[in-house]
Hints:
Strand order of the largest sheet: 1-2-4-5-23
CATH architecture of the largest domain: 5 Propeller
Radius of gyration: 23 Å
Order of helices and strands: HHHHHEEEEEHEEEEEEEEEEEEEEEEEHE
CATH superfamily of the largest domain: Glycosyl hydrolase domain, family 43
Structural class: alpha+beta
Largest sheet: 5 strands, mixed
Amino acid sequence: MCSTHTMAVFKEAGANACFCLLSRRVSKITAAMPSRAMDCLRRLVPFRYFGRTDNMERSDKKMTPQIHSFSAYQDRIVMSLVEKQFFLNRTVSKSKYVSVLGLLIAGSLFANQPEQVSIHDPAMAKEGDTYYLFSTGPGVTFYSSKDMETWKLRGRVFPGEPSWARRVASDFNGHIWGPDIVHHDGKFYLYYAVSAFGKNTSAIGVTVNKTLNPDSPDYKWEDRGIVLKSVPKRDLWNAIDPNIIVDENGAPWMSFGSFWSGIKLVKLDSSWTALAEPQEWFSIAKRERSVLIDDREPGPAEIEAPFIFKKGDYYYLFVSWGLCCRGKDSTYRIMVGRSKDVKGPYLDKDGRSMAEGGGSLVLAGNNKWYGVGSNSAYTFDGKGYLVFHAYEAADNGLQKLKIAEIKWDAMQWPVIDEKVLDEYKSVLVE
């Protein structure tokens, strides 16, 4: 039985639930909690009461907890909340009872619902009958699935971190950003970025593997090092968010960029691990930025995460406008332009070049999903798919995986039905 006081607190929080929290022993308290209530605490309590933890997700100016890799530090915070009697000590204000217990309630109410994949910057590849999903996270987090709905967490690409990472970005925190995965000449090339928040102390690297199946004896990532790096005060661009596209002649090109002067395109050599010489560079998308802004600052030009997708006669350049990773304040949205030449110009539906601020809306957030973006695009078994993340209002703005079939209008522009935000729900399994 719970005490009358404990029941009163839960009633005040608006919950029809009861946790027997009278015991001061941590083991008894945590044993009485549904596992998802504990997950809720691990994800939300450190951010709500302690601010930054050691389990943070990428953002240019702000960091938020990520659900799929709880740290020992977070568990210690959860335990300390219990041991410090946030729930039991009557000297604590009633508002704190309600705030913290509300988190437990939220976890318990969702205890019987399948856990979704919480992910940023998803990139996908298919090997055999299995899909592999890669995301921003510690060492590049990855998952596998047979149906693009039920996903299993498989671990991380880098057990530690790239050997060169801290030479490029002294503030690097172990989270590798914005991966892209492509298959070439019997091998998989995974491009990724190392950076520091709000700075262009950044570099794009590449690691190579014969297979994506971690159970295969041939599974072994071999890092090929830096492909390209940006240097503050020297470069007015940011070497993150790489994406590889092959032109009609079989030559590889890499698009990349975030804020500053926008999205760049550069040609790679035949190794796919270095820039071609002589170098060929193009600016393919940007937003307005005053020349008076300090070159070290990202500025107001909110554009990043390029992805070029070939269909028919056109190369389609998808980008994300707005701000990510800010919960209810996220303004991410997916924009597009197209060109018959990989080098551009990429024009929107009104004929305006994306290099001059143009772009046509593909998908934006709504009152249930605060923002959507950082997409990739693929053709699997004759169908086109857009893969992206979205911030769910009902789950405190937590990022969720979304996969949508791409439809095409009469003028061959991509169309995404907003209903997919509610209809597609991934399932994370053990």
